[in-house]
Amino acid sequence: MEMSKTISNVPARDAAQKARPCGDGVVGENFFEVSDLKKSIGEQKILQGVDLDIRKGETMVVIGRSGEGKSVFLKHLIGLMDPDSGSILVEGKEIVGLKERQLRDVRRKVGIMFQDGALFDSMTVAENVAFPLMETGIRDRELLLERVGQALDKVELTEHMAKMPINISGGMRKRVALARAIIAEPQCILYDEPTSGLDPVVSESIDRLIRRMQKDLCVTSLVVTHDMNSVFRIADRVAYLREGKIYFLGTAQELRDSKDEYVRSFVEGRPVENVD
Ligand SMILES: Nc1ncnc2c1ncn2[C@@H]1O[C@H](COP(=O)(O)OP(=O)(O)OP(=O)(O)O)[C@@H](O)[C@H]1O
Ligand SMILES: [Mg+2]
Questions:
Q1: Which structural domain, as residue segments, surrounds residue 35?
Q2: Nearest CA to 24 among 235, 225, 227, 217?
Q3: What CATH number is given to the structural domain containing 112?
């Protein structure tokens, strides 16, 4: 990037981040550009032409009813699932059709917190959280411990680091998955239901953490959630996935103000009346 050349000894990403505001995203610079993404599994049409751009530095929240394909969509963004057709650009580079080895670059840039945590059962909490750092080649035990301690502190789990995943609660497993997603400070973090099943106090602190990651590190975030309180706490923009497409896209305020019956019913958590 041109402007980073003038700042010596600062990695390009840091320089670029310092030079641009974070918060509402950088208009004109997209981290992801998804076009006409389609995916069926067996007979079931899941994604039926998803178009969505996610700006660098913004927090995009994806909402939608259970089973609509939100998790499936997220998995496409790092090449864990292949679409039937369509395109996914990551910082301008097509990732559809790439082989596992070619996807490594994307996976280094993008951290993901899976809906079910997806922790390694045979590793301790600390080893799980250290995993992405070890993937980057870090082997220094002291450094790993320090970074793991910091990440677990952010999710208030430092005293449980020696436990095995089976011996902690569901909510704690979720927070371990969150610490693992953020530890390597990726440029982009995908969170699949980060607060579901957590008590309101922990949920709010997780939301604050998501905002802080954005503010301090200019992280691009994509958060799937059902929790409307979370939506209004964290979203710069909201995308509503309905019947395999992005049915609504707008700011949190636009979501609140929408008169559309389907949007209203989702936001207010009630069935749609007199439509269909
Ligand atoms: N590997 C798979 N094999 C078969 N069907 C699948 C697979 N993965 C997802 N599906 C189906 O795709 C649909 C969308 O699933 P997905 O997990 O993306 O929903 P979701 O929007 O994330 O729902 P929730 O809010 O409950 O997490 C579901 O009907 C699901 O059964
Ligand atoms: Mg899901």
A1: 2-252
A2: 235
A3: 3.40.50.300
